[in-house]
Specification:
227 residues; mainly beta; 61% strand; globular
């Protein structure tokens, strides 16, 4: 085994190790398509589409459609903000939801750190639920043709309690390991295993999802404004 691969494989084992107390488990498939249009060297717009399928929810249980505006502040720092609409289906008892988002991303070599805040609007109540989502991702280049491996960890912290049901505290975490695969000149795909663990809170059972996750990233030509 290459010495360079040992740290990323060891980290993978740590990230996907989830608490043994999970009582409800599910096998799922997650698909996300991101289409990014550069406006200039600093500013980009990304359109996002997400679909999630699960056994316990009897098929498609969630879709998300959104837009993200991204600004490259410096070589290492990106600012972003946008909107997503979330729809629930089949066995998913959650309400449809509107979300406004803000984030800051720092990238240093193979390490990416993101701090995101979701502003959640739910039809069951008038209060805004704030959710904090720090994320860390480490990439490892595998060859000179664009193939790389990655590990990722994300924590979900609910910052307040709302009248529609959000309860303050640590709510879930996501851990993933996989490959970033070049598909064509303008398309690459993250393909991997994602483990989502929802903590047992307020009398509810803990839940664990094992997901095959595919994220297609489509980089479109620069938007030409005017002549």
């Amino acid at each position: 085994m290459s010495f360079r691969l040992r740290p990323i494989l060891f980290t993978s084992l740590l990230l996907i190790a989830s608490p043994a107390a999970a009582r409800l488990e599910d096998e799922q498939f997650w698909l996300q398509i991101n289409s990014t249009v550069p406006v200039n060297d600093q500013f980009r717009v990304t359109l996002e589409q997400i679909g999630r399928i699960g056994d316990r929810q009897n098929g498609l249980y969630e879709t998300e459609v959104g837009v993200l505006f991204r600004y490259r502040l410096s070589k290492h720092i990106e600012l972003g903000g946008g909107y997503r609409h979330v729809n629930a289906f089949n066995g998913n008892r959650a309400s449809d939801e509107d979300r406004f988002r803000q984030h800051i991303i720092g990238t240093w070599g193979p390490v990416l750190v993101r701090f995101r805040v979701d502003d959640r609007l739910n039809p069951r109540g008038n209060e805004i639920g704030f959710r904090i989502r720090p994320l860390v991702r480490v990439n490892q280049k595998l060859n000179n043709r664009g193939l790389s491996a990655f590990v990722m960890h994300e924590t979900f912290y609910l910052a307040n309690t709302t009248d529609w049901g959000q309860r303050r505290g640590f709510e879930r975490m996501r851990n993933a390991v996989g490959l970033n695969v070049p598909v064509s000149k303008r398309i690459n795909a993250d393909i991997g295993y994602l483990n989502q663990y929802r903590f047992a809170r307020f009398g509810a059972q803990a839940q664990m999802a094992h997901a095959l996750s595919i994220q297609l990233n489509i980089n479109l030509p620069r938007l030409r404004l005017g002549k």
